[in-house]
Amino acid sequence: MQKLVKKDDEPITTFIDKVESLYLKKGISTILVLGGVGDYFDVSNIVIQMKNYNPIDVTIKAHEISNSTSDKRLYEGKDHQISLTQRAPVKGCIDPYNAYNKKSIYSTEINRIHFGKNIIDLADIEQPIELSQTKAISEAILYISKFPDGKTSLKEIIHSLMRLIEKNGLDILSGKATGNFAGFRGLELAFTLNRLREFKIN
User: Dmax over Cα atoms in the chain, in whole Å?
Assistant: First the structure.
C-alpha cells in the first residue's frame, strides 16, 4: 500500500499531477477525504458525499458546480516522475525466539501478539474481530520468517503466502489441522509486520 501525502508547501496543482500520474502510470487510485471543500471538483473522477453515514454519488452535481465557475486549475509538473520503492525484508529479521532462545509465539488477546522477544500491538488495526484471526496472523509471520532473502519484496512475499492459503487452506500455517484459525487479509499481515520492532527492510 502506498500513501501519498500533500506537503504543506506543495502547490495543489503539482499534487494533482502526482495523483494523475499515479493512476495513469502505476494504476493506483487516490482517495481524498475532505470536509466542505470543493478544490478538487474539477479534477475528480468520482465524488461521494457522506450523509447520515450513507454514501451518495454526487459526481454530476460536483462537476456542475465546477463548470459554473471560470476559475480552472492550471496543471504543473507534467514531467514529475512517479517511482515506487519496493520494501525487501532483511534476511533473518523475523526472529521467533525469546530471551531463553526458545521459540515463543502466542496470542491471548485480539490486539496483541507475543512474538519472540517482542509484543506486537495491533490496537490500531480494526479489521481483526476474533482471536482466531490474530492467531492465524501470528502463525503467518512465523511461516514467512524463512522467506526474506534481502531481495524479494514484502509485497511479493505476502502475495505468495496468500496464494498458498487460498490453495491449501489456513492449516498450511501450522502444518496440521487445528481449527483454531480464521481468515485475514494480506493487508493485516503487512500492518502487523510493520509493528514488529525487529523487522528490518532494504
Answer: 70
Strand, helix or coil for residue 57: strand
What Rg do the C-alpha atoms of the chain give, in angstroms?
22
Summarised one tens digit per residue, pLDDT across range 90-101 is: 888 888 899 999
Give the β-pairing of 105-109 and 112-115.
Answer: antiparallel
Q: How far apart are CA 154 and CA 92, in angstroms?
A: 14
Distance CA 158, CA 127 (A): 17
Residue 35 CA to its chain's centroid (Å): 24
> DSSP for 105-128?
EEEEETTEEEETTEEEE-TT--S-
* 22, HSE (Cβ side, Cα atoms, 13 Å): 16
pTM of this prediction exceeds 0.70 = no
